[in-house]
Design a protein that fits this description.
Bound molecules: zinc ion
Protein name: Lysine-specific metallo-endopeptidase domain-containing protein
Keywords: Signal
Number of strands: 11
Structural class: alpha/beta
Organism: Ascodesmis nigricans
Largest sheet: 9 strands, mixed
Distance between the termini: 42 Å
Radius of gyration: 19 Å
Strand content: 15-25%
């Protein structure tokens, strides 16, 4: 079965988060800048490998592709996003398992993606198991823009050299929010925002100026998760305590459990076989994957250490910007895409 993604078949509304070092955050009187005015990257660990659960197996899937990976790889340019332009013959598909969950995940990457297979396994391994279990597929592609990520249905798609715990957690939070029927849009969370005097960061504050509660909810989830995993905030989070309490009540089961709960895990989407013209390029060595791995190689990108003392997760510092929401209608199915765009200085 062939899926043709045509521009006319899509109607898109995009939600994107932009983070930049120039941090020209918009403000309003009620949410002046957020607890972390420069963004949540202060909560990122110094390197991924130290905090990630190592994958236990990796298996190439040379002849099949998750339907959603196929569609994403061939995505055309639209007003919010550039075309991805990954030839199907360059799309690698592999299956990864972790020791803390009975399910496995299909991951897809274009052969020129900045993130290697090991990087993807490592990044995904940073999610707590029950949160990881909410996500269906992880994808990685190259981008001509700054590194960014978005969620599409239950998939997380990463562009460029993006290795931020805060970003992957933010994206997984959107999946969780959606799968649980809109935790961010409940009266209890909206009441909490009204009672509080700040949001998590400039990004959440910017979203609030547009009445978007999904982004502040996701950023609150990141802050709550950081604390529940043993992180110590240097900033006084009292100004967003009501949001933290609500999100903790809604989601602590997804943060604190040491194993995934399969009854809450997402299910795999449809797969289809590659056509003869889309057979995986022989130059791609995916067929040579080891049958199993006991450890993930350390990330080449080490984050600067910080003075934030935590047991499991550590830090760095971060940046600014705006949001948009992406609502896609394709294949007769209404699809919602939330996009987090990360602009950061190198
Ligand atoms: Zn977002």
């Amino acid at each position: 079965m062939r899926f043709e993604l045509s521009t006319s078949s899509l109607s898109i509304a995009l939600t994107a988060l932009f983070l930049s070092t120039t941090a020209t955050a918009q403000t309003n009187s009620r949410y002046p800048k957020g607890l972390y005015s420069e963004g949540l990257k202060v909560l990122d660990p110094p390197n991924l490998a130290s905090s990630a659960v190592s994958a236990t197996s990796l298996r190439a899937i040379p002849s099949e592709i998750p339907y959603s990976c196929y569609g994403t790889a061939l995505s055309r340019e639209n007003k919010e996003l550039p075309a991805i332009n990954c030839a199907i013959s360059s799309l690698e598909v592999f299956e990864v398992t972790y020791p803390d969950c009975e399910r496995s995940w299909k991951m897809c990457r274009c052969s020129d993606a900045d993130l290697s297979r090991e990087d993807m396994m490592e990044l995904f391994g940073m999610l707590s198991p029950n949160l990881r279990a909410q996500v269906r597929n992880l994808m990685a592609f190259k981008t001509s823009k700054s590194a960014h990520a978005y969620t599409s249905n239950e998939d997380v798609v990463v562009f460029g050299d993006l290795r931020h715990w805060t970003v992957i957690t933010h994206e997984a939070a959107h999946v969780l929010d959606s799968r649980k029927g809109g935790l961010s849009e409940t009266a209890v969370y909206e009441d909490a925002i009204k009672k509080d005097t700040c949001t998590a960061d400039y990004y959440a504050a910017n979203a609030m100026t547009r009445g978007d509660v999904k982004e502040p909810w996701a950023q609150t989830f990141v802050v709550n998760t950081f604390r529940k995993l043993g992180g110590v905030l240097k900033a006084d989070a009292g100004c967003m305590q009501n949001q933290l309490d609500v999100v903790a009540d809604q989601t602590d089961d997804f943060v604190k459990k040491s194993r995934c709960d399969m009854s809450m895990a997402t299910t795999e989407g449809p797969m289809f076989e590659r056509s003869p013209s889309e057979v995986l390029d022989k130059s791609i060595t995916i067929e040579n994957f080891p049958a199993s791995l006991t450890a993930v190689s350390p990330s080449k990108t080490a984050y600067p250490s910080s003075d934030i003392v935590i047991r499991m997760k550590e830090s760095e510092d971060e940046k600014s910007a705006g949001t948009t929401a992406l609502r896609t209608t394709g294949w007769g199915i209404a699809t919602s895409i939330l996009m987090l765009q990360l602009w950061y200085m190198n």
